[in-house]
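Researcher: Quick one. two chains, 471 residues in total.
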Amino acid sequence: MANEGRRIVIPSQVIGETPAMKAGRGTFVENGKIYAERLGIVSIQGNFIHVIPLKGRYDPVVGDFVIGVVEEASTSNWMVDINAPYPALLHVNEVPWEIDFADTEKYLNTGDAILAKVLSVDESKKLQITLNDRNLFKIKGGHIIEVESSVVPRIIGKKGSMIELIKKYTRCRIFVGQNGRIWIDGDAEGIEKVLQAINKIENEAITFGLTDRIEELLKKDAKDVR
Amino acid sequence: MKSDIKLINSEGKRLDGRGPEDLRKIKIESGVLHRADGSCYLEWGGNKVLVAVYGPREAVPRHCQNPLRAIVQARYNMAAFSVEDRKRPGPDRRSVEISKVISEALERVILTEQFPRATVDVNIEVLDAEAGTRCAGLTAAGVALVDAGIPMRDIPVACAAGKINGQVVLDLGKEEDNLGEADLPVAISPRTGEVLLLQMDGHLTAEEFNKAFDLAVKGCHIVSDLQKTAIMHKYQSVVAAEVQE
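Model:
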């Protein structure tokens, strides 16, 4: 059956037993049984059984590329909203500019968007992000849209196939943050097309053969393919 | 208590035609609000309840944070137009109490240790009231939490039992609540049978209490199935469309 691999589960649903299977992400064990702890899709990898969430807040992982919005500038750091349960700290040492004491607002101020990388997550979930890496920058111009962080892998596609496809047909610069924020820059027509495609991906995220259908959608009114 | 009002007729039928162990009609719909992280609209007889869930997000003010786990802040509120005479808006003694007991019930099922320092906000708005709003609110909150993708041990569910005209019955209606002898709202975790909330208004003998409690738990399991169907219905539809293609 087509939906065999995409079984939807809800919390408290039994999805396996412990000696035979190992409990992975999004599951918990009680009395030898593995239960789903959140709404999601069952994914079995080897011996492990995971529940991939369908909805919910972005759970930051070290090394993720995210799009953040500056909430507050202090004398030696910024607080940045990265769509996680907690605001992330960006220290002046973690930006590529030389900043004099209390001069933080000149470089990044409330409302500015940045493309950053998650530097650390400690056990009390204190987050730190950095701008010191390749391809990280302050975002100027373009659009930022938000999607459910669980559909990010679908928008990127297998080895970036989906996102390459969209870029090819729309001539836009697109960056997809792991936290569900997407930055799009290009002409108005292109942006409109990207939004259409992403909307379709979001609505049909748990179906198969999505890449082909998106290509069809984009091809329909594509005049100049790069 | 007036004894001349017949809440149960000679055929054993109640005022609205239900038998002693029948529930009112329940309709559950999840994911109705777009701005909230999770939401649920529930109709239970004449009750209409809308629940919105936000979070987990950082708890403010700082002093109310728990460094080891998330806190759950439920807010039960009755709309001014939810009852026959206009209800004075704003929190009163009753709604503060219900908010507290619901928060504590939800805290037991949410995996709060995954989100230190955070809060999960649950807004329960009663749009139309007809007895049993705390049960309706808690049941709807359970569905809204699942819709918000919050990790949980179980989906909480609530149902009430009570005593009218000397007989123990399930799920009291408005007249039965006002004129009956006792009301017993119960919330459970249906997977384990743990009790999350138990309150009683009125008097019951030990024997009647046990009977009413068992009846309420039975009602909870029926409502629990409705909750699960409602959630599955919302998310299964996409998969179903896929199979047809």
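Chain B touches chain A at residues 37-38, 55-58, 67, 111, 115-118, 146-155, 190-191, 228, 231-232, 235-236, 238-239, 241-243 (CB under 8 Å).
Researcher: Thanks, that's what I needed.
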